[in-house]
Amino acid sequence: MASSSGLSRPRRRSGAWRRRAAVLGMLAVPLAAAGVTAVPAAAATTYTVTATDRASATTGPSFGHVFVIVGENVSLFEINSSNAPYITGSLEPGSAWLTNYNQAARGSLADYVALTSGQYASCQTSGPCGAFNVPSIFSQLGNGAWQDWNESMPSNCYKNAAGSDSTLNGYKPGHNPALYYAGLPCSTYDTPTGTTGPDDMSSFNTALAAGTVPQYNLITPNMCEDGYHACNGANQITEYDNFLAKEIPLSRHHRPSGQTA
């Protein structure tokens, strides 16, 4: 990914800030929290793809569809068979676990931007500070090849916090990275997973069943199902585990072309 003036490459951290990531037919990755704003663009320096880059790219497996589910704020040692039976019993045995994956920076927004672009603006560690004109996985894939799905988001490309923990529909725009890249057709490809009803994934599940999801799908659960908040007394890790247990089997069965990751 390209570098840009004022942008930082992710750095590794350890200890209490270590994040966990599990990869299998689905990629489950954790991160942090934030808010939203306007559009000052940062000048990006162009990265030239070399022959070596192309050669290394051809050695990886080919996937027809990729689904990335983002959970957050839980360390690897906190996950066990009691609070996460699906992760430990069904996912882990057949998965690659990236146990040295750490947050890029303190603050959710910087982490979500780093996850989708390989870089972040230093101001994003404190929250939203505009949209930046830098390459991202979205811009590199091109229009129609990606979708940023956000559970409980009221409408496409929604820039304000909404919902609540008590009603099981809390949405945080700082967990929605497509909002922070200048020039993306956010209003088209940054979409809710369903209604603002409790834990609603109906639109995403309908698209899966119809075979209309794009090649790359970034899926962010709401604040009650992303592993961070304990809503109405529920265990937050178990809520995330339940979310994965519902959605991963549906995504695994969606294979109209190529493999699913």
Polypeptide structure, described:
The protein has 261 residues and is an alpha/beta fold. The protein has one domain (7-260). 23% of the residues lie in helices and 13% in strands. It is built from 7 helices and 10 strands. The protein has helices at 51-57, 85-91, 108-117, 137-141, 186-189, 202-210, 236-252, and strands at residues 7-8, 22-23, 27-29, 63-70, 96-97, 120-121, 146-150, 190-192, 216-220, 259-260. The strands form 2 sheets. Strands 2, 3, 4, 5, 7, 8, 9 and 10 form an 8-stranded mixed β-sheet that branches. It has a two-stranded antiparallel sheet with strand order 1-6. The longest helix is centred in the C-terminal third of the chain and has 17 residues, at 236-252. Mean pLDDT is 80; it is low at 1-5 and 11-47.
